[in-house]
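Newbie here. two chains, one complex. Structure please?
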Amino acid sequence: MSRATWKGPFIDNTLIKKANNVKKSGRREVIKTWSRSSTIMPDFVGLTFGVYNGQKFVPVTVNENMVGHKLGEFSPTRQFKGHTEADKKVTTSPVKDKK
Amino acid sequence: MKNLFVHFGTIKGAVGIKGELKIKVFLQNKNLVNSFKKVYDKDNKKNWEIKFVRFYKDGVVVNLDKIQDRNDAQKLIGTKLFVEKKYLPPLQKEEYYAKDLVGFIVKKQDGESLGSVEEINNFGAGDLISIKKKNNKTFLIPFNKENIKKIDFKNKIITVNPLKGIL
């Protein structure tokens, strides 16, 4: 059953406070959180969260495409170690839409 | 050998009686196999020309020259196949092959060594480099301009300026 619309999205209050503090101060820091079920709000775009996966804090840099998803979606608790594809590319440029 | 060639697949089995081979491919774009002309084994002692390619869900089925029947094909099961790097698509500015970065030493801007690159992950929020410390513990750094300052291919060093709280 989906969440009642009148409640609005769930976000941990502590997380909102932490995010606001970092935004106001402009500090370069990771916001550590255990609240994997918190929804990503438009205000979070550009911030980096350290989302706990039961073992370590996975850095999640929020972009526009992630708004509305939960933080936990980007920090898997199980990981399959396979081969790295020979033609897998990485870039330091800003994230583009990948479809 | 390591610098010029890249491991793109492993022979998993024989198909039919005409010497066709099933290859599990470690490529994001399986169609690249069509452009490979010669493939090599791990020690670069043997090489084969690819004559025919067709696709199946996990990889490709190929026909190699010199492999005429099923018996020949079965002898090659488990062989790791390599291809020259020049057959991979060209890179754009600030783009790198993930495999090329594995093993690089990661240093802070003040010269402090953090460890070496173990692998590169992407969980949906951008690329992350997994760095193995000397005590075998790993941590992740986002692979973006904010954190990665310089990549020195000659000396295999990545200079980073990680956000507070990442280390």
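Moderator note: Helices of chain B lie at 70-75, 98-101. The mean pLDDT of chain B is 87. Thread marked as resolved.
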